[in-house]
Design a protein that fits this description.
Layout: H1 3-16, H2 18-54, E1 60-65, E2 69-70, E3 73-74, H3 85-94, E4 98-113, E5 116-125, H4 129-132, E6 137-140, H5 145-149, E7 154-157, H6 159-165, E8 175-178, E9 181-189, E10 204-208, H7 209-217, E11 224-229, H8 235-250, E12 259-263, H9 264-307, H10 309-317, H11 322-359, H12 367-393, H13 397-402
Parallel strand pairs: 5-10, 7-9
Antiparallel strand pairs: 1-11, 1-12, 2-3, 4-5, 4-8, 4-11, 6-9, 7-10, 8-9
Helix pairs in contact: 1-11, 2-9, 2-11, 2-12, 3-8, 9-11, 9-12, 11-12
């Protein structure tokens, strides 16, 4: 018997029991839809995280104070105040490939203006801060190197501070008071929203780091140093150059460094690895329903073989081969699983779109996940349909004809 005739017989058998065929395929439909939706959610989460990391800036390298050892006393990461403005200047001058450097001093302060007050983060930075962090100046301008040198009392505000102190007003040219010291607002940075760790990135007042060091913190040490590499490819060499330079300046050995150098790439790789694990976990959990759907196909096919024993005996008695019967029942299982896979793809894509519209969550349907889900559903049809098909093909014609 030709494969085309076998295929026609398989379709005819499935049409005779439409409701049972639909219910049998339902497990595959739900399984494929769940796999695609879960993988899309995981990929969307990864894209969202990567976008928030990218918002931190391009090719950023961070230098933090490290640990210290003194006699029997040891402190952990960040326990030593060792970085100075001179270190930051040396990095800018002596390390090849460095595009920009910003010494950082951070503190919290109560800020007063316009009859209102707000407790916010007070950040001392260089004019290169906006360039390093890829932060657009929405109004006004950043302060200048001349402002840094003259300890100028100028400030750039984040959007949250503008909303709290100057609601529905233009803050440019107006004064704010930080610990009773007046600062003129010269710029406002574009809003960025919350960062990867849930903190409001727009809640800050930016001033020259020299003003912060001399007027507020009154100490020579920095909280950190922001560095931007000229290109991502140069980041490893720049990190090594910074390490070698600071070891020399601090008179330290490589095993006793009192600072830590990290790159944005390292942070992104760590977060991406976590996101990939989440996507894999979600896909694996949803994939269990595919296995359950396959077991359902096997169960129904075994029932079908029992119900159609006399039909199989007649076909074998009039000259059909066992392989024809095997192929027929195998095709029925594969058709059920493939139809379920195709409908499941439509269900998964539709549900992903609904989730994106309802929650504003970024959803990324991967073409690879669609192809894999459909192929896997077909493989399940072959795997779970083979045993019932083989059982049907091995029936003895005489015994099958006697079956009541």
């Amino acid at each position: 018997m030709s494969p085309l005739n076998v295929l026609k017989i398989a379709f005819r058998a499935l049409r005779r029991n439409k409701l049972r065929s639909i219910l049998t395929a339902l497990g595959i439909i739900i399984g494929v839809g769940a796999v695609i939706a879960m993988v899309a959610i995981g990929n969307g989460a990864k894209v969202r995280v990567e976008a928030r990391i990218a918002a931190m800036g391009e090719n950023v390298i961070l230098v933090f104070p490290g640990s210290f050892r003194s006699g029997g006393m040891r402190s952990g990461w960040g326990g030593a105040a060792t970085l100075t403005a001179a270190d930051a200047e040396a990095i800018a001058r002596q390390v090849p490939g460095v595009a920009a450097v910003s010494p950082e001093v951070r503190d919290r302060a109560q800020v007063f203006a316009n009859g209102l007050n707000w407790n916010t983060q007070l950040m001392g930075e260089s004019p290169d801060f906006a360039y390093i962090r890829n932060w657009r100046v929405a109004r006004g301008a950043m302060f200048t190197n001349r402002d840094v040198q003259s300890l100028a009392k100028v400030a750039v505000l984040g959007q949250t501070v503008v909303d709290e102190l100057f609601p529905n007003q233009n803050p440019l040219g107006k004064l704010i008071r930080i610990r009773d010291i007046p600062f003129e607002v010269v710029g406002v940075l574009a809003p960025k929203g919350f960062n990867l760790f849930g903190s409001d990135q727009d809640d800050f007042v930016l001033i020259p780091y020299t003003s912060h060091l001399h007027r507020f913190s009154r100490r020579p040490f920095l909280n950190s140093v922001l560095v931007r590499a000229a290109s991502a490819d140069q980041s490893p060499q720049i990190m090594q150059g910074i390490t070698d330079l600071l070891l020399q300046r601090h008179h330290r050995s490589p095993g006793d460094a009192d600072f830590t150098v990290r790159s944005q790439v390292e942070i992104e790789q760590a977060v991406s690895a976590s996101a990939n694990t989440l996507t894999l976990l979600l896909g694996a959990i949803a994939g269990v329903s595919l296995i359950v759907g396959g077991i359902g196909i096997m169960n129904i096919m075994l029932v079908s073989v029992t119900e159609r024993t006399r039909e199989i005996g007649i076909r074998l008695a009039v000259g059909a081969h066992g392989r024809d019967v095997l192929l027929q029942f195998l095709l029925e299982a594969v058709i059920l699983s493939l139809m379920g896979g195709i409908i499941g793809v439509l269900l998964g894509v539709s549900s992903s779109d609904l989730i994106a519209r309802a929650d504003g969550w970024p959803i990324l349907v991967s073409p690879a996940s669609v192809v894999i889900a459909v192929l896997f559903s077909a493989a399940i049809g072959v795997f779970f349909g083979y045993y019932p098909a083989r059982k049907a093909a091995q029936l003895d014609p005489i015994d099958a004809l006697r079956f009541e």
